Amino acid sequence: RTNSALISQAVYLIENGVKVKCEADTFKFEKQLKSAQALFTKDDKNIKDETIALYKTWDDLVKNLGEHPELKGIVNIVLSKKVKRFLACLTKMKQQKGGTKYDVLLITAHKSKGMEWDNVVIAQDFPLDKILDGELQQEVNLFYVACTRAIKNLYIPELFYNEYTEHTNFKTEE
Predict the structure, then answer these.
(1) pLDDT tens sequence across 4-54
(2) Contact, 106 vs 119, CB < 8 A?
(3) What is the pTM of this model?
(4) Are 1 and 142 in contact (CB under 8 A)?
(5) Got the DSSP string for 4-65?
(6) CA dihedral angle for residue 19, residue 25, residue 29, residue 32, rounded to 10 degrees
């Protein structure tokens, strides 16, 4: 769903020797990541991203993450002290951009609209509780788009499957 989850998965795969094509704006992500790190370390002169620059302090950013689900992943990277690892993998991704030889294609649900693949794996960064409750129709629609890209196999997060099963069983017993 989000670029931060997509890039996190790309980093994991790259570090494990998988050739990845990642359809994400790695330049923007890198700028946000470096800016978030600068905000965290109070290095104001290196906050170059306009979204991160809206926050005066690290605590302000953390308090307002609910408004920006994309930034949650970036904050988690900074807090986990993995910024250097991510930046190294982003450099590799940028160098490989445009290459046709890859083992795995990573793409957000938004960008996948109208496309199909034999195998689709849904990441765990959808707001599953809100999808199951039908609270956010926009998220329900996006999840539908992502799931319907699969021709042969669809792999959904185990947590979602378990919650879905529990949710539908509860509804049928009423």
Answers:
(1) 888 988 999 989 988 888 888 888 999 999 999 999 999 999 999 999 999
(2) no
(3) 0.77
(4) yes
(5) HHHHHHHHHHHHTT--EEEES-HHHHHHHHHHHHHHHTT-GGG---HHHHT-SSHHHHHHTG
(6) 170
